[in-house]
Design brief:
heterodimer; A: alpha/beta; 4-stranded antiparallel β-sheet; 8 helices; B: 10-stranded mixed β-sheet; 13 helices; 23 strands; 25% helix; globular
């Protein structure tokens, strides 16, 4: 199987404070990995560093995407290579209609791949359809990006963007937090529909709940900036039953 | 802020002004200093009639006494060293002043300069809907589309020509909205104004194209004193665009323009500006001082005046396009987006003076501050006792980029009629790294991201601009902010 993303001995942090203390991770095309871990373990930092947030500093290590080290690339270049981040707390962009934002984004990605800009009518119909299905109403596409959106709507909007932009590798940072059970199922359904042999996912979560609906191939537990355990779906079940403390004891043993 | 981000910002900010070049055109420049002889010299150079010279001299005496009484205004939120008015040269003209039959005859050097600036002087551009009266260093060198407008009775020419060819019209309206004694800079302009534009639209005529004039400073130490007069007769319509860029210079350049608009019964004037004078270097050295008096008079019933401005350039801006709503049911709108970056200081806003019944005004101001820029909105809404049922709505939003800039709001509302209603809303926000990162994560580079964010913030203003300007203005906003978001 082809390796899509490989992280080698990654040490990174913010404002001189080390948060990731040597991460090693290999994700193959076609796989869905879940990262679980308590608050402050570095889950979101990992997501931000993969996507290239400029505030984060990388002290050591490599992130290879398709075998190429992407650490020197700008966030937009990583996006253009097919890396997508569903944000934990998506921001609001007042006055910029979601439709315009999505069109600009899609065309930037297409241009990077040497493709023609998307046909306006085809695009409009597609976005309307996705908005209706995922956010529940079409008219949101004319509102400013996330302007006046509820927390749940913002999360759904991230999924809408993932579906539209069709990344090869998606990092979903706590996409399940703040969602009711119906929304959670809907999000899981879209993730499952997108799974394919060419595509991979890294799903970051606190809770077992979403994993029931998107059976992960591999589960990792992150603690204090390190991956302390890796296993299959059963590891998530064990964490759910016994909590993180149990893991720590065995990890330290 | 990480060091490399800081470096990147510095690099982008230190990029040279794209349009900062000087075209080597021979010029005739008046010796520095201002006195009655200089006024006579200017008037003579321009072959003006006696009444015009007298008007200028009178203005000069007003200015001189204001100067002696120390009435140069210093209340704006801007700091700069004292201006030496005797060190400025008040007139510059291309040495050869030919009359062109066609554009082909225009000095190729001048044409190249216009082309570099992207000024659509060519016929095909004019056919696309823009007639250009290009003002190079205060003297008109070419006018397009004039014949076609003449057939409709529309007068669109340099004000110098209008003084010679339409003296009655000019005399009737010049200085009626901004009298020479209005303020210090208006008085200076009245005394020494070099050139500018005159527009007259006859009753019932809708001007079919956007009229536009490009201004450009091309001589060191030469202040620009443009004078614009637009008269829309009964039930007529005109849309006028003004855009400018200036070459890089070492010393401060004074720009004190006066714009007067007069709308008679049922007439409508739309006046749009894209202002991109040289902002100065990192320390603000060499930037333009832009001290402008713009005022419109809704003289007639049901008349309408709309101001749209995109203020990007100049190191200091002192500018309050205002409207006197005299006619009953008259309407005025003011839409402004102003950017201050580097050491720019902008003190800008509007005044809406309601006199007539059922008059309405709407003010939408968007200020963006970055670098060490300071952006002040200064507005006045005055509703006089005669203005039954007057309405005003003011919205004033500020956006901050970085931690060293400032945004200030100085609104003044005076309502002296109990039936009048005035509303005021204000917000302040900040472009953060997070919003920028969100856009970049979706594949937009920094420039595109800023363009999108700013266009969202300034949407209400940008959409008022004529199509030809909207795209350019949007681009200009993002260019002037490039790299300022860490």
């Amino acid at each position: 199987m082809k390796t899509l993303l490989e992280i080698r001995n990654l040490r990174a942090g913010i404002d001189g404070k080390e948060i990731l203390k040597g991460i090693n991770l290999q994700i193959n095309a076609g796989e869905l990995h879940a990262i679980m871990g308590p608050n402050g373990s570095g889950k979101s930092t990992l997501a931000q560093v993969i996507a290239g947030h400029p505030a984060y500093e990388v002290y050591e290590g490599e992130i290879l995407f398709d075998g190429e080290n992407i650490l020197e690339l700008d966030p937009e270049e990583r996006a253009q290579k097919g890396i997508f981040l569903a944000f934990q707390a998506p921001v609001e962009i007042p006055g910029v209609p979601l439709l315009e934002f999505l069109k600009t984004a899609l065309n930037e990605l297409r241009e990077a791949r040497g493709e023609e800009p998307v046909d306006t009518m085809t695009f409009l119909n597609k976005v309307k359809e996705l908005a209706k299905e995922i956010i529940g109403k079409e008219e949101v596409i004319y509102r400013g990006v996330n302007e006046g959106f509820s927390g749940g709507e913002r999360k759904r909007n991230e999924i809408l963007q993932m579906r539209l932009l069709e990344p090869r590798f998606a990092v979903l940072d706590e996409i399940d937090s703040g969602l009711d059970i119906d929304a959670l199922k809907l999000v899981a359904k879209h993730i499952n529909e997108m799974r394919s042999p060419e595509r991979a996912f890294l799903l970051i979560t606190h809770y077992y709940r979403i994993l029931e609906h998107v059976k992960p191939d591999v589960v990792h537990v992150l603690y204090d900036g390190k991956i302390v355990r890796t296993g299959d779906y059963n590891l998530a079940l064990e964490v759910e039953e016994k909590g993180y403390d149990w893991l720590l004891e065995t990890a330290n043993a | 802020m990480p060091e490399e981000v800081q470096k990147e910002i510095e690099e982008v900010l230190s990029r040279e002004y794209e349009w900062g070049f000087v075209a080597p055109i021979e010029e005739e420049v008046a010796p520095p200093g201002i006195n009655e002889d200089i006024i006579r010299y200017i008037s003579e150079k321009k072959e003006e009639p006696d009444w015009m010279l007298e008007w200028r001299l009178k203005a000069y005496r007003i200015w001189k006494s204001m100067w002696e009484r120390g009435e140069e205004p210093h209340w704006a939120y801007a700091h700069y060293p004292p201006i030496d008015y005797q060190a400025i040269s008040y007139y510059a003209a291309p040495k050869k002043k030919p009359k062109y039959g066609s554009l082909d005859e225009v000095d190729p050097e001048i044409r190249r300069m216009f082309e570099k600036l992207g000024i659509p002087l060519e016929e095909q551009k004019a056919l696309a809907g823009v007639a250009v009266d290009a003002v190079l260093d205060s003297v008109s060198v070419a006018t397009t589309y004039r014949k076609k407008l003449e057939e409709m009775g529309i007068i669109f020419m340099s004000i110098s020509e209008a003084i010679r060819e339409h003296p009655d019209l000019v005399r009737k309206y010049l200085g009626t909205v901004v009298p020479p004694g209005d303020n210090f800079f208006a008085a200076l302009n009245a005394a020494v104004f070099s050139d500018g534009t005159f527009v007259y639209v006859p009753p019932g005529v809708k001007c079919p194209i956007e009229l536009s004039t490009y201004f450009r400073i091309n001589a060191a130490r030469t202040g620009q004193f443009e004078r614009t007069l637009i008269v829309a007769d009964k039930n007529s319509y005109v849309s006028y665009l003004e855009g400018c860029t200036a070459p890089m210079r070492d010393e401060h350049q004074l720009h004190a323009a006066v714009v007067e608009l007069i709308a008679l019964d049922g007439a409508e004037i739309k006046y749009s500006t894209v202002q991109n004078w040289w902002t100065g270097d990192e320390e603000g050295r060499g930037g333009i001082y832009n001290f402008v008096t713009k005022r419109g008079l809704c003289a007639g019933k049901n008349s309408r005046i709309m101001w749209v401005q995109v203020e990007v350039g100049s190191v200091i801006t002192w500018k309050y396009p205002s409207t006197i709503l005299k006619g009953d049911n008259s309407v005025s709108e003011f839409y402004s987006v102003a950017i201050t970056n580097k050491r720019q200081q902008a003190d800008t806003g509007t005044k809406m003076i309601h006199i007539g019944k059922n008059t309405r005004s709407r003010i939408v101001s968007k200020g963006i501050s970055a670098g060490y820029g300071n952006n002040t909105y200064r507005g006045m809404v005055k509703i006089l006792p005669s203005a039954e049922n007057a309405r005003n709505y003011t919205q004033c939003d500020s956006m901050l980029i970085g931690n060293n800039c400032g945004a200030h709001t100085v609104p003044s509302i005076e309502v002296r009629n109990p039936t009048a209603v005035s509303e005021h809303e204000a917000t302040t926000s900040r472009i953060g790294e997070d919003i920028l990162f969100y856009c970049r994560q979706r594949g937009l580079d920094e420039e595109k991201a800023i363009e999108l964010i700013i266009s969202g913030f300034a949407k209400e203003v940008l959409r008022q601009l004529p199509m030809e300007f909207a795209v350019e203005a949007r681009k200009l906003l993002s260019i002037s902010l490039e790299g300022s978001v860490g």
